Amino acid sequence: MTTCNIGGGCSPDTPTMSRHDAQAQLKTLHADWQLSEDGSTITRRIAVKGFAKAVYHANLAAWMADRHGHHPDVAFGWGYCALSYTTHEAGGLTEIDIACAKEFDGLLA
Ligand SMILES: C[C@H](O)[C@H](O)[C@H]1CNC2=NC(N)=NC(=O)C2=N1
Fold this sequence. Notes:
Blueprint: H1 19-26, E1 34-35, E2 42-47, H2 52-68, E3 73-77, E4 80-85, H3 95-108
Antiparallel strand pairs: 1-2, 2-4, 3-4
The structure holds ligand H2B.
The ligand C[C@H](O)[C@H](O)[C@H]1CNC2=NC(N)=NC(=O)C2=N1 is lined by residues 3-4, 10, 69-71, 87-89.
């Protein structure tokens, strides 16, 4: 198992963001990222054609997640793949989630 190795790694001591800070950080990401009501999670739903491309996006997210040891929840099906980032160890949204979301945006750009 890969230990979280991005931005110094995550732990229960990693600071979580206020909803206000999260909203500011969201502006640095692709416009499709959405912040959950409680401010703990960001989600991007990617529309694709068919099923294979949805699986490829999920695989790309899995590949990136295992490199960094920081893992999004991934949902996919015909026509879509959705990624959600939160830092489980810290119990909320952290800079690590933002960094991962940004890197994923870069892979799709
Ligand atoms: C030991 C290891 O670094 C941790 O358990 C990692 C694994 N992947 C993780 N992924 C996410 N999204 N949050 C975490 O807190 C987390 N913790």
